[in-house]
Amino acid sequence: MELNGVNSNYAAYEATSAYASTKNSSTSKTESKTSQSYSDVAATYEASSKTVSTTTSKTDRSAVIAQLKADQESRMAQMQSLVTQMFSKQGIKIGTADDMWKVLASGNFTADADTIAQAKEDISENGYWGVKQTSERIFDFAQALAGDDEESMEKMKAAVEKGFKEATKAWGKSLPSISNDTYDAVMKKFDDYFAAKKSAAENQ
Prior knowledge:
This protein is mainly alpha-helical. It has seven helices and no strands. Helix 2 runs antiparallel to helix 5 and helix 6 packs antiparallel against helix 7.
């Protein structure tokens, strides 16, 4: 089963989320943790055709942030339930999300055909946990938090970098290629953003 890459993708997303509560303090440290109630709630992410507008009002950005967070938490709950059910059939007990990641990282389990099929769909090119949609969600969330503020976007980029480092540390070994590809895709979005800002300033 190929759910390995989800941990790092979610950690990076959570890193930007954690930054939201500490962006007014330059000495605060951003840390990503997953703590939620798990259920079989399903959600569908509508991939944006363009990044969040940096000119949207603070109220509008707050609505975007709330929607992105709710969507992400619902999908994590759905995946947690799926994996928990799979492990239960094998007598493997997990109490927290951390326990789940440890078992997944160990590879000491077998996955049924339905779980494998769902995992493959989720991490496919256009799947919810695939590189395209995941990188879009992370960048859209960062941009919604930062607005049209380059300094804040620099901090968001640093938060994403920290999130992936923390994910690698928690995983205990090199992350799967899908995680690295997602990281590269997110960094490219940040680089394109800053390049566009620089170009606009030079043409003024």
